[in-house]
Amino acid sequence: MDAIDELYNTLGALRSEQKSLDTKYLNDVQDLSKKMIECLSKTTGEYLHNLQEEEDAKRKDIKEDD
Amino acid sequence: MPSEKTLKKMIDAVPSSLSYDNGTGQLPVQSAAWFGDSAPYIPLLATKGVRHNVGGTGKRGGLLVGHPFDNTRINVLELLATCSTHGGKSNSEPYVYDDTLWRNVLKTLKESNLSLKQDIQYYALLVWSCHTTCQLRFDYRAEMDQEGLKRQQGKPLIHIIINSRSSEVFQQFLTTALKHHPEEIGLLFQKDDAGKTAFECALHKDGNEATFGAIEQCIPLDGADSQSFIAWLRMLLNIQMSLGSAIHHQYLSEIAMEGSCTKVSWHQEIKHSIEIP
User: Fold this and answer.
1) For residue B247, is pLDDT > 50?
2) Are B75 and B67 in contact (CB under 8 A)?
3) Does A65 touch chain B (CB under 8 A)?
4) Does A4 touch chain B (CB under 8 A)?
5) CA separation for the pair B60, B47 (Å, rounded)
6) In this prediction, does ipTM exceed 0.90?
7) How far apart are CA B33 and CA B65, in angstroms?
8) What is the pLDDT of residue A43?
9) What per-residue confidence (pLDDT) applies to B236?
10) How far apart are CA B235 and CA B245, in angstroms?
11) Size of interface A-B (CB pairs under 8 A)
12) What is the pTM for the complete model shown?
């Protein structure tokens, strides 16, 4: 099982039990989840910023007087 | 490169990524517009961006957000009108332009209602795309807004082209303008605010040889339909009048009005007329 599967199962299990979880613990998990979403947003955002193949892509602006 | 399907799922899983600032102040949809490899993803990024209000209200998923540092605050629609791509592996290799790729992005955006006819006038997109390396995009925009060829943001486009671009670009413009406005001879005699015709201005800026060469290249001599045929004839007439020449004005007028002569005889007659001092 890789990390994604493990995390998926962990969160699934915690989610199903959230009503019975201790409040402080639940708040900590909520905070952790928010941080994780922020990190995922950053990682995915950076990926979206770099969809070009780096070694091939070069920017070329057209000169006004071409 | 990810498939569109995969990318769609990634974005659906983390929609906030569409608004991620990578430190340059740009959105992902703006970054994608700088490269040929990433440009085909722009319609997807914008479509998803609209759903998640990327760039703010009315910014079409980020397409209308201006570049954070560029002086002109160029937005993605403007960038797509002029951008080119490079296929080489290093900076020393020659640039490879792929106008078709960028034109296809525009087509997809239009089909998704992310690029509208009124954008052409509002953002002067015909000015942005009138370059020899963007001919397909220029023609595509001109097809969308044929009246836009006459004026962009209130100014006569043909004069903007003559004043700021090469005679090759002028020729490109004229070819397209003749297609959409043959009855106005490709807007060649459209006047600027000072009352000068585009033809006069072209002669003044590029000289007779380059101007006539450009005009000649635009005229469909072979396989021309009768409309183009008459348009060309009238143009020759106007050219002669502009030059103050008295060469067979009446004669040319008669031919132009007749419109019944064959292409061969017309061509011969014109040639004959021009050769007579």
Assistant:
1) no
2) yes
3) yes
4) no
5) 8
6) no
7) 12
8) 96
9) 64
10) 14
11) 106
12) 0.79
